[in-house]
Design a protein that fits this description.
The chain has 119 residues and is mainly beta. It is built from 1 helix and 7 strands, in the order H-E-E-E-E-E-E-E.
């Protein structure tokens, strides 16, 4: 279970090697961590929007792993119509955090969307 919790972070992959111990019934457990930069970012542009709120959309996001040293994950994503008009607009924001706790993963997510269309 601990390995699954550690390996859920894409920027830190942990492998395990179990070797025989010096006494019967004992083992030596070696964990090897392959760390990368703990931040991931993206930006995007597409035409997935509607005519009423702006066809072209901009988006971006940032993910951070292990900020508190507790195998925690944080993220924030956002989107906006690329035309930036007050009369036709869509905005979105998502943010969240997750933290392993024993066999469980505690998480909090926030999402907000706004649509504007003047006739």
């Amino acid at each position: 279970q601990g390995m699954e919790q550690l390996n859920r972070m894409p920027t830190q992959q942990v492998s395990i090697e179990i070797q025989p111990g010096s006494q019967p019934g004992y083992s030596i457990v070696n964990l090897t961590s392959k760390k990368q930069i703990p931040l991931t970012a993206n930006i995007g542009f597409d035409n997935s929007g509607q005519k009423s709120t702006g066809e072209r959309q901009l988006s971006g996001g940032l993910w951070a792993d292990n900020v508190l040293g507790l195998a925690d994950q944080w993220f924030v994503n956002g989107g906006h119509s690329s035309e930036f008009r007050d009369s036709r607009n869509v905005e979105s924001l998502q943010a969240g955090v997750s933290l392993p706790y024993g066999y469980w993963t505690l998480s909090y997510d926030y999402s907000q969307s706004r649509y504007r269309n003047n006739f």
